[in-house]
Amino acid sequence: MLQTEIVREKAPHPIPTLGRNGKVLVVDDSRSVREILAKTLSFWGYDVTLAGNGIEAGRLFFTGSYDLVITDLEMPLLNGWELSRLIKERSPNTPVMVVSGAFDETHWEKMDKGFVDAIVLKPFKLKEMEGTVRRLLNNGK
Q: Which residue has the higher pLDDT, 87 or 1?
């Protein structure tokens, strides 16, 4: 699939922005993807924290406060599904967006179980990413 598409989204969780766009935790084992997302999200006005794997992200999430988590699926140590499940168990109202280069039918099932709120396929278009982020943070109309 060459074109990026947003596969499916649940209704966004209402999250107060407290006069800012929000704090986003970006998790990806690819440094270039982390850097692109960090620069883009920062440009859009979000506070961004980066993690290179699921364990690092878990530590950051459980010791900090984030309005949105964007995670890759295929990562060493703790994959995106495991991280999403841990986040939702601790903070069910925190939206989790999965960004993945691979997709199969089990992704739908896991999304339906409440592990994630949106799935975006790589390579993604920045406009689609921005729309999904804003909807998940309830900033977009």
A: 87
